[in-house]
Write a structure and sequence with these properties.
116 residues, mainly alpha, 3 helices, 0% strand, extended, oxidoreductase, membrane
Length: 116
Amino acid sequence: MTAFATAAIGSSISFSINSILFAISTILAKDDLIRGRRAKRGYTNKPVPIEVVKDILSIARLAPSSSNTQPWKCAVLTGKARERIVAAAVKNFSDNHDTLALEYPFFPDPRLSPDL
């Protein structure tokens, strides 16, 4: 076997092992993310950098959907447009909070164990 053939086989094996290790580490990282997920409601007034928003939406678009319908739409608002929407939503809630209805129930009715 020539030195070239040996080098080619060696690099191929190395590449395969590296690919497998990368795949395993990616799976484990995702597993840790899913298992470690917790609801966080510690909001701040600090704006989220637009690059972070783009990254989140880029990843979220890959989420599976029933029959691959991908029924979501997303709008990112900043500046004056965001301020107008937030002001309108707050006013609508303040003016109508007694008559607003949920679009869908969050919990089954009646609630079943273990929620009782």
